[in-house]
Amino acid sequence: MPDASRRNEQSRRAILDAALGLLAGTGYAKLTIEAIAARAGVGKQTIYRWWPGKGAVILDALAENATAVTLPDTGDIEADLREVVRATVAEFADPRQSATTRALTAETLADDALGDQVRDRLLRPQLVAVRDRLDKAQRAGQIRDGADLDHAVELIFGPIFHRWLLRTGPLTRRYADGLVDHVLAALR
Amino acid sequence: MPDASRRNEQSRRAILDAALGLLAGTGYAKLTIEAIAARAGVGKQTIYRWWPGKGAVILDALAENATAVTLPDTGDIEADLREVVRATVAEFADPRQSATTRALTAETLADDALGDQVRDRLLRPQLVAVRDRLDKAQRAGQIRDGADLDHAVELIFGPIFHRWLLRTGPLTRRYADGLVDHVLAALR
């Protein structure tokens, strides 16, 4: 890698790391391009050369972070689903992560293009990973042949999202386990 | 009812009717208090005497409209759920209703108090009505004793809401029927 490319890549990573750090520290609402630039040790113009604005930087930072997530595969679909659902519920229950996701969700409701990006880059990889794990379980006979796996994925994430966004009930481990029990009853 | 009360009630209904009419005509984003007042034949100050702003008027208008909805009860939980889910999916698929719900949802993400009102006055009555219908079906032996009805309600509405908000798939009658099949598999 030539020096200029390496420096660019270092700046890009520094910017995304700074964005994630500020997101965790001050939260989405108060985060500015100026603060990201200062923390990353680059000029504002460097950020604006690569991204149109704050939402796009945060989206890239979250998307690169998200690809590191891998799904558990012990061979036991019940154990694996329980782990995934508990972790997902815990993420939505975390005040900081919840605030970021609420802010991003509000922006996607006002901006269809950003909504498509968030869906395709942040959400879809997780949904596809769970669908693939369910597909493997179906081929192993742990899920009935008639079960539709697109419905299955939405039976898992839809209720969590609904409960989180509308604040209709607690997001606890007990809730997560109850949800898994009901989803498995639909799929077995 | 004394004349003043009757006139107040007539004005209140005229304002809510005007709000619903404008919502259907110009949509939530372009709707103004001025336009509601003009259409209802009242002064702006009458509206501001009773409501703090546009969101509150729309919420009242939608909430009064929503209470007129009654749940089907043929005695057959499968037939009744199918009707409810088809109707709900059709509402979310309707561009005008979807735009209103997206605008209101975006506002609730930025305003917790409005979010609580929307949940308790628009959403909760529907969820409770479905839960009551499921409870009756459970007592009639059409739903297994171990099924948790709060989970059941969220298994129905969560996936629809998730698919609608994140635009992950089509909102068709075929989708509605598939969802009902999977939910019933979890509950029987």
TrEMBL record, chains A, B:
Entries under Pfam families matching the protein: TetR_C_11 (PF16859), TetR_N (PF00440)
Keyword annotations of the record: DNA-binding, Transcription, Transcription regulation
Residues of the HTH tetR-type domain: 9-69
Protein name in the entry: TetR/AcrR family transcriptional regulator
Lineage: Bacteria, Bacillati, Actinomycetota, Actinomycetes, Micromonosporales
Tree of life domain: Bacteria
The entry's DNA-binding region: 32-51
Organism: Paractinoplanes bogorensis
SUPFAM superfamilies listed in its UniProt record: Homeodomain-like (SSF46689), Tetracyclin repressor-like, C-terminal domain (SSF48498)
